[in-house]
Amino acid sequence: MNEVTRDVVIVGAGAAGLTAAHELRKAGLSVAVLEARERVGGRLWTDVIDGAMLEIGGQWVSPDQEALKETIAELGLETYSRYREGESVYINAAGERTLFTGEIFPVKPETEKELVRLIDKLDAMVAETDPDRPWDRPDAEELDRISFEAWLEQETDDQEARDNIALFIAGAMLTKPAYAFSALQALLMAASAGSFSHLVDADYILDERVVGGLQQVPLLLAERLGDDVFLEQPVTEVKTAGDGVTIVTDNGMVVRARYVILAHAPILYPWIEFDPPLPRLKQQLHQHISMGFVIKVHAVYDRPFWRDKGLSGTAFSPYELSHEAYDNTNHGDERGTLVGFVSDRNADDLFRVSAEERKERILASLANYFGPEAKDPLVYYESDWGAEEWTRGAYAASFDLGGLTRYGADLRTPVGPIHFACSDMAGAGYQHVDGAIRMGRLVAQNILDEARR
């Protein structure tokens, strides 16, 4: 049996866990990072599939993501802008394809007026919402009891306006149907990005990528930690006694420490045996959050053919199987890559058919945007995070109706020496790598403050 002793043990070698470990070790504490997978990175994963480098997990960097940008600079990584020259594509409910530029979709004048009004109203509401404490809004309970879909129905009779506003939160971010989460949860999502307008603006929210892939962030952080990172060590037990904890893994490793940080998706807590059990409030809380579901589709072609047509590679439609798509061509690559996304119920439906039919349907949707050439990629790959044992969904966990006001304030609360940190519980940067880094820094500082008392 492999037994080690450290000041802090971190469960999960994603951006949050590795950031926390890095900060703690810089402050002079000893650490051990236990990772269930055979790789570091968590929901960041850059891999080569059939000769093409693909960002299987998270990949984009936006201007407001200061914690991520600081880490990228510290690690000496380079970024490059997402390709966005040319026109974007929009497909309406009738299947009509229209080219456009700018942020507002090409819709009827009365629908455009409603879109602008709703965006302005949501921006004003977001300005009054603290992403770290959305439940402090005076109307928080009211907004948390109504689904985002129902809230939109109260706001406008324009179906296309409702569908498009819902797209930015439901399909593109929380990856759940708009009837499955509250209006308050939608405000948190927008507040975490600074404004609802930021979510609407693809040129902002999907601004840059890292040369060589975003997984380099956790890879380089892990490299600095050296032998203190232990792979293929799924944690099965967390025992608290006296002034410390004992962590046991499925492979027989035992770590004794003063503190433990659970730095992984909170939906995985039930797979750990806690002794003594977590408080009943925590156990209830964990039954009211769930992951979304999205298929990230990668299609690599011999060249970025859409650019020859004057297209940016950006496409949107709440009525298409792939509700959004982007030019995802790698830095310096002569080939062209499109990335598309299929979320919530559409993703459910696709996993009820064969892999061949799923691929055919998805590529047909991309062809509706970009033309028949999209049906014949050199490389095709589906990122299915719902099938990842140590994640079980994407992009992050969110609360059911009423859950955010009921339990949100308790999500990060420590239980004795047990601390919690991941992008799922971030305010700014919620469900992004930036939020994971912020949570890693925060929990490390909390432990340092506690250790110094």
Automatic annotation (TrEMBL):
Residues 16-448 form the Amine oxidase domain. It comes from the Bacteria. One of its GO terms (molecular function) is oxidoreductase activity. Pfam families: Amino_oxidase. Transmembrane segments: none annotated. InterPro entries: Amino_oxidase, FAD/NAD-bd_sf, Flavin_MAO. Belongs to the flavin monoamine oxidase family. This is Putrescine oxidase. It comes from Microbacterium aurantiacum.
